[in-house]
Each structure stands twice: as structure tokens, then as C-alpha cells.
Amino acid sequence: DQQVKQNSPSLSVQEGRISILNCDYTNSMFDYFLWYKKYPAEGPTFLISISSIKDKNEDGRFTVFLNKSAKHLSLHIVPSQPGDSAVYFCAARAGGSYIPTFGRGTSLIVHP
Amino acid sequence: KAGVTQTPRYLIKTRGQQVTLSCSPISGHRSVSWYQQTPGQGLQFLFEYFSETQRNKGNFPGRFSGRQFSNSRSEMNVSTLELGDSALYLCASSPQRGGETQYFGPGTRLLVL
After folding, report:
1. Counting Cβ atoms within 10 Å, is residue B61 exposed (0-12), middle (13-18) or buried (19+)?
2. Of the spans A91-95, B21-25, B93-97, which averages the highest pLDDT?
3. What is residue A94's DSSP assignment?
4. How far B94 CA lies from chain A's nearest CA (Å)?
5. Phi/psi class of residue A85: alpha, beta or left (left: φ > 0; alpha: ψ in -120 to 50)?
6. Which CATH number fits domain A4-111: 1.10.645.10, 3.30.160.270, 3.40.50.261, 2.60.40.10?
7. Is the pLDDT of residue B1 over 80?
8. Phi and psi at residue A53, in whole multiples of 5°?
9. What is the per-residue pLDDT across A62-74, written as a single tens digit (0 to 9) for each?
10. d(CA B1, CA B21)
11. How many CA atoms lie within 13 A of B30 on its CB side?
């Protein structure tokens, strides 16, 4: 029973365009959401997070949107760069829990 | 500041053997968590240690165990290896429990033949 779902295993985008990575969750107790980026042969690195009290958080080219009613969040990368090519993991935590539940990841390829 | 280090980086074992993986957290970090990453399942939580005590355990059989030492370094052990244990094992550290983020090591790639 997957509580955090990333339904697109891969995404291909042209350099300079917007990349939108999606994530759905089923557990209504989740109140904190994180995105990680992972390059081959490296561990995941934290990218951006959002609390359930917000619906948007922005950090440079990266923006995360949260739609609590739809139990959906998305990561927008604008503009996309070839160096953004990586696997992106969505993760969620429930209040009082220190352990994030991860999605299976979306592989983003940004073409020059 | 040095990042999270994991040793060994690659390991090949045969079914039935046991294996011990090591993780050295970032200096000053007291919380260490372990994850298993497989192509089909993504990242799955194994266990979390804080102050030498296991605080949380994921849904894995008892063949998977771990410990944390007084210097916060952690080891995980898998006994009676199965083919399905082939995976990337990731360790993550954070200063305290429930920190804003976890800092991941590069992982240990385990192949069970």
C-alpha cells in the first residue's frame, strides 16, 4: 500500500522550459513534505520542503505547491537546466513521526 | 565539514551469508537512519537510531538489524542473505531527531548471488 505515489517514472523536458514533477499521497496525517534529488552513485540530497500550513514554497528556480484537498503536491523547476537531470523523490512525514515515507521517484531528463 | 560516509561502497555476497555495513554520520549529528532502495520499491525505511538506541523500525524481517555506537557511528547487519536483499543501502544523518532534513551518504551497493 503506497502512501506516497509518483505516478510518472520519467519525464523529459527541453532546457529552459518548465519541469513539473507530481506527487500524490493517501495518508491525511501527513503534514510535512519534502523533495530530494538523487544523482547516480550519490545519495539523495534535500531540495525543498513545505509544511501543510502553506500551499506554496519557493527557493530560486524550485517551487513546491501543495493542494491538501486533493492530497497532491508538485515540484516546478523553472527554467530547467541539463544539470537538473536526476531522479526526484517526493517524501512525506506525519505529525509526531520523524520518519519520511518516500515515493518511488521520477527520473527527469533535461535535454540541451 | 565531511559528509556522511558509508563503507564499503560495493559488496558481493552469496545467499545465506551475512553482511555488515557501516555508516559514519556528519560530525555532531546524533540521529542515523537506514534505508533500502530497490528499483521496484523506491526508498524504504529500515531503522532509526538516536543516542545508541533504536527509535523506529520499518517493516523488515528480523534478519535486518543495526546498532549505533557512542560516537554516533552506525552499523547494519543482514543475516542469511537472500537474492531479494540486493539493493542500495543508504544511511542518513541529522543533528537531532525530526530535523528539517536528513543528509544522505552515497550508499552501499549490495549484490547477493
Report:
1. exposed
2. B21-25
3. E
4. 11
5. beta
6. 2.60.40.10
7. no
8. -85, -5
9. 999 999 999 999 9
10. 22
11. 11
pLDDT digits (tens, 9 = 90+) for A45-55: 999 999 999 99
Q: Which of A106, A63, A68, A64 is nearest to A87 (CA)?
A: A106
Is the Cβ pair A98, B97 closer than 8 Å?
A: yes
Please provide the DSSP assignment of B89-110 as one string: EEEEEESSTT-S--EE---EEE
CB pairs under 8 A between A and B: 49
pLDDT average, residue stretch A36-60: 94
Q: Using pLDDT thresholds of 50, 70 and 90, give the confidence band for residue B44.
A: very high
Using an 8 Å Cβ cutoff, are B106 and B9 in contact?
yes
Residues B84, B101: Cα–Cα separation, whole Å: 29
pLDDT at A104: 93
Domain ranges of chain A: 4-111
The Cα A47–Cα A26 span in angstroms is: 22
Considering only CB atoms, B98 lies closest to which of A46, A98, A102, namely A98
Three cell numbers, residue B55: 527509535
- Cβ contact B91:B4 at 8 Å: yes
SS3 B83: helix
Tell whether B90 lies on the interface with A, counting CB pairs under 8 A: yes
Strand partners, A30: A94
d(CA B62, CA B82): 13
